[in-house]
Amino acid sequence: RTAYVNGAYVRQSEAVVSIEDRGYQFADAVYEVWSVFDGRLADLEGHLNRLERSLGELKIATPMPRNSLLVVLNEVVRRNRVREGMVYLQISRGVAPRDHVFPENVRPAMVVTARPVDRDAAAKKALTGIKAKSMPDIRWGRCDIKTVGLLPNVLAKQAAKEDGAGEVIFVDKNGYVTEGGSTNVYMVDADGIILTRDLKANILAGVTRLTLLDMVSDTGLEIRQVAFTLEAAKAASEVFITAATSLVMPIVAIDGHPVGEGKPGPVASALRDSYISHAR
Ligand code: PDD
């Protein structure tokens, strides 16, 4: 594998970053994940827009103009010969002697990697769906910024795994679903309307979510950005998640209780197909 690291394409197994990188010491860094279909990055612009927003919110300098960034992303895909896969980009504030406050005259540090994904295995998984575990959302108040500070997500997803579940459903202190451990969460209500949490809750504005919001208008489905409880999700006919990694994935059980008939429903399945057509 080949990685891009601060201006050079290097063998990934030999790639190194500084031990004083602020991403390493303070999680003072942001990231993006793209899915790659047929060698092309899906929702390219959406992820770049969000990246620029994350950098802006943290006052991290943009390491290079958008055009150059595009060249690097595509070059990493090309050098790794990825047709079906994903790209990871991380930008930290930079390298400086450890001190909490922003260092002066620091240059942002940037890393890009790419790897293949087994689309057949993912398609099979989508046919059975995955189980979810609900967990209290103990994260900070700025989950709208895509930072690498993911320890609560890591711990929650590990707990889910130990319970035989593939994703976490985070629930706020009022009992409302916020998002997944690394996904956005949706339910289908009794009227067939899709609900997903509004962005006022400072959840991550998923790029896949944004595309879905655009897409549903063409499908005759209705989607509303509104808070719903974990109880409502458990009683819903369908629950599903979205992300650049899992695309659209049905949730067939929450905390051991089957959702709907305990198998993927028509809405999630149709949206998965539409999303993949869009991405291709
Ligand atoms: N996660 N919510 C959280 C907390 C996420 O980490 C992600 C993405 C999403 C979905 O965003 P998008 O549709 O733009 O991928 C929502 C990435 C894929 C990850 O951490 O691997």
CATH class of the largest domain: Alpha Beta
Most strands sheet: 9 strands, mixed
The CATH homologous superfamily of the largest domain: D-amino Acid Aminotransferase, subunit A, domain 2
Helix content: 25-40%
* CATH fold-level assignment of the largest domain: D-amino Acid Aminotransferase, Chain A, domain 2
Round the mean pLDDT to the nearest integer and report it: 97
Ligands bound, unique? N-(5'-phosphopyridoxyl)-D-alanine
Q: Which residues form runs of ≥5 with pLDDT under 50? A: none
Number of DSSP helical runs: 8
Q: How many structural domains in the coordinates?
A: 2
The SS-based structural class is alpha+beta
The global form is globular
Give me the CATH architecture of the largest domain, please. Alpha-Beta Barrel
| Share of residues in strands | 25-35%
Termini separation (Å)?
24 Å
GO biological process, one term: amino acid biosynthetic process
Enzyme class: transferase
InterPro entries: Aminotrans_IV (IPR001544), Aminotrans_IV_CS (IPR018300), Aminotransferase-like (IPR036038), BCAT-like_C (IPR043132), BCAT-like_N (IPR043131), Class-IV_PLP-Dep_Aminotrnsfr (IPR050571)
Keywords: Amino-acid biosynthesis, Aminotransferase, Branched-chain amino acid biosynthesis, Pyridoxal phosphate, Transferase
Explain how this protein is built.
The chain is α+β, with helices and mostly antiparallel strands. It folds into two domains: 116 residues, Aminotransferase class 4, branched-chain amino acid transferase, N-terminal domain (D-amino Acid Aminotransferase, Chain A, domain 1, 2-Layer Sandwich), CATH 3.30.470; 158 residues, D-amino Acid Aminotransferase, Chain A, domain 2 (Alpha-Beta Barrel), CATH 3.20.10.10. Helix content is 32%, strand content 28%. The chain has eight helices and 15 strands. The strands form two sheets. Strands 7, 8, 9, 10, 11, 12, 13, 14 and 15 form a nine-stranded mixed beta sheet that branches. Strands 2-1-6-5-3-4 form a six-stranded antiparallel beta sheet. A hairpin with a 2-residue loop joins strand 1 and strand 2. It is globular, with a radius of gyration of 19 Å. 38% of the residues are buried. The model has no long low-confidence stretch (mean pLDDT 97). N-(5'-phosphopyridoxyl)-D-alanine (PDD) binds next to helix 6 and strand 13. It comes from Asticcacaulis biprosthecium C19. InterPro entries: Aminotrans_IV (IPR001544), Aminotrans_IV_CS (IPR018300), Aminotransferase-like (IPR036038), BCAT-like_C (IPR043132), BCAT-like_N (IPR043131), Class-IV_PLP-Dep_Aminotrnsfr (IPR050571). One of its GO terms (biological process) is amino acid biosynthetic process.
